[in-house]
């Protein structure tokens, strides 16, 4: 099936399918909204606390699901 | 600027697309959420350096992108979790055909060089302009354009030429083919 191989320009249909797949993949995640973990984090922190978290133990705060 | 309530809300509103970007980059949901958390911490810690009126999503994406790249350098020798961890981040599992197609697309995306992958995602999925994508990646607009073009060519080759049979037709065509036998 060598005849489908795009040479210079891409087949328009293939391009639009790639674009569609890419957005579908991305939008699946976007539609999940903001997980509680991050809503909590932002609610609790102001700049100074964030600084302390980075300096301290950034990976430990995994309380929520 | 100081962290006002409205800025806080704007940051929160960027979280869904930051996660999508992180997952598209890393292909790994858990690692992506760690990246997002680190991004938020950095952003809040450096909020004073954010200029009022400048592009907040672009600023946040820049932080995430830079974190990912330094993280990636550290981890590049580790074995990737390639078996469907991305799918686990979905709330609803897609139907099996769609799921398979999805996994193959994700796998193809991961085969792209990192520069090309991030350019394609920023422009093709996040909806940034070429100019914003260039700012985020710290390169020229022309460089972004050529990376996006090369990414598209390579994906097309991976999915529709070399792997044409594996990938198969889209859902509509599949449904028609599948339904014509009865």
From TrEMBL, chain A:
Superkingdom assignment: Bacteria
InterPro entries found in the cross-reference section: NepR
Ranges for domain Anti-sigma factor NepR: 15-49
Pfam families assigned to the protein according to its UniProt record, in alphabetical order: NepR (PF18557)
Official protein name in the record: Anti-sigma factor NepR domain-containing protein
UniProtKB/TrEMBL annotation, chain B:
GO biological process: DNA-templated transcription initiation
SUPFAM superfamilies: Sigma2 domain of RNA polymerase sigma factors, Sigma3 and sigma4 domains of RNA polymerase sigma factors
Keywords (A to Z) from UniProt: DNA-binding, Sigma factor, Transcription, Transcription regulation
Keyword Oxidoreductase: no
GO molecular function annotation: DNA binding; sigma factor activity
Ranges in a coiled coil: none
One family name in Pfam for this protein: Sigma70_r2
InterPro entries per UniProt: RNA_pol_sigma-70-like, RNA_pol_sigma-70_dom, RNA_pol_sigma70_ECF_CS, RNA_pol_sigma70_r2, RNA_pol_sigma70_r4_t2, RNA_pol_sigma_r2, RNA_pol_sigma_r3/r4-like, WH-like_DNA-bd_sf
Domain (RNA polymerase sigma factor 70 region 4 type) ranges: 103-155
Domain RNA polymerase sigma-70 region: 15-77
Record CDD domains: Sigma70_r4
PROSITE patterns named in the record: SIGMA70_ECF
Transmembrane segments: none
NCBIfam families per record: PRK12540.1 (NF009192), PRK12547.1 (NF009199), sigma70-ECF (TIGR02937)
PANTHER family hit by this protein: RNA POLYMERASE ECF-TYPE SIGMA FACTO, RNA POLYMERASE SIGMA FACTOR RFAY-RELATED
Protein family according to the UniProt entry: Belongs to the sigma-70 factor family. ECF subfamily.
Name used for this protein in its record: RNA polymerase sigma factor
């Amino acid at each position: 099936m060598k005849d489908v191989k795009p040479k210079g320009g891409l087949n328009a249909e293939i391009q639009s399918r790639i674009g569609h797949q890419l957005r579908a993949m991305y939008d699946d995640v976007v539609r999940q909204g903001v997980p509680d973990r991050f809503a909590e984090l932002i609610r609790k922190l102001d700049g100074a606390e964030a600084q302390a978290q980075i300096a301290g133990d950034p990976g430990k705060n995994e309380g929520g699901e | 600027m100081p962290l006002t309530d409205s800025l806080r809300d704007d940051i929160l509103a960027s979280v869904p697309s930051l996660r999508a970007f992180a997952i598209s980059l890393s292909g790994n949901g858990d690692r992506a959420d760690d990246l997002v958390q680190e991004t938020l911490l950095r952003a809040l810690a450096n909020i004073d350096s954010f200029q009022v009126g400048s592009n907040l999503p672009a600023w946040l994406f820049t932080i995430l992108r830079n974190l990912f790249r330094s993280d990636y350098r550290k981890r590049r020798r580790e074995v990737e979790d390639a078996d469907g961890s991305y799918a686990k981040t979905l709330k609803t599992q897609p139907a099996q055909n769609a799921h398979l197609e999805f996994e193959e697309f994700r796998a193809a995306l991961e085969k792209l060089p990192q520069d090309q992958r991030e350019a394609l995602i920023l422009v093709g999925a996040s909806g940034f302009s070429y100019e914003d994508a260039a700012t985020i990646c710290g390169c020229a607009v022309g460089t972004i354009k050529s990376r996006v073009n090369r990414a598209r060519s390579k994906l097309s080759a991976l999915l529709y030429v070399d792997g044409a049979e594996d990938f198969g037709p889209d859902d509509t065509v599949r449904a028609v083919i599948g339904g014509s036998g009865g």
